[in-house]
């Protein structure tokens, strides 16, 4: 049994580290990719995980396969292909530590990722399936998204997506018409405030989250940076404040948040509708804590906090952490 399987990318984030003496930029090749960041964090919180995706058969792809193995989500689901290179992005940061991503590849291994490459045995074994929002930006990715979503729903899996929109994925103006239909029927949807606005054409989280629920999505989490998060599901809705930390690097913050929510939901071992409001509020508070630790560090996957990190953080701020104690999938 696998707790969480994710379908999507593992990539190289070329991240600026300093300027050379002659003024040239210097970059470090760091592992990243939203679903991989999520799985790294879920593993560190005690879940068993597996990535289903592709890399190029090249040195960068070999490096990423080793990272996936090191963080516990590598294996049979991650394939190397010869026809396209390993995907990478250029990362930049503003003065506040907020990051931007720039894709400079017209095609990468992700563009050759097809439904027949999906390891169905891994999907069958998983309790929860995470679908990368990046899939929605490619025609082949949308085919994968819809087929895996249909399979997961039919099998009674917990199905999740983080929209994770990036410039170049698709036009924001197209999202409501062309992207929202793919999201219908999800158990959990995580969006930023900007992504909620993109999908609903409204600026109010209460109205926007209700519009998303009306599309058949059962739990909506809207992350809002220093303003915390907002959630809505059958038993209620509410705001959960962020923890005040010194922000160094916001890369992977949303992925870590989503991982903490997923792990906590699986630990409840019941349907989302059976989780009472106070427990759901606690789950979101734990996710905010994990995300807060992440932004105080540098490096996407490298910034993911351990279970002990989160428990210590919550203990220091006087918040219960019993939701993330215990055993999940046989892993303490």
Name its key features.
332 residues; alpha/beta; UDP-N-acetylmuramoyl-L-alanine:D-glutamate ligase; 23% strand; disordered C terminus
Number of strands: 13
Strands ordered across the widest β-sheet? 5-4-1-8-9-10-11-12-13
Structural class: alpha/beta
What is the CATH fold-level name? UDP-N-acetylmuramoyl-L-alanine:D-glutamate ligase
Low-confidence stretches: 325-332
Per CATH, the class reads Alpha Beta
Q: What's the SSE pattern? A: EEEHEHEEEHEHEHEHHEEEHHH
Distance between the termini: 15 Å
Q: Given the C-alpha coordinates, what overall shape results?
A: globular
Strand content: 15-25%
**Multimer state:** single chain
Mean pLDDT: 91
Please state the CA-atom Rg, rounded to the nearest Å: 18 Å
The number of helical elements comes to 10
- The CATH architecture classification is 3-Layer(aba) Sandwich
Name of the CATH superfamily: Ribokinase
Q: What does the largest sheet look like?
A: 9 strands, mixed
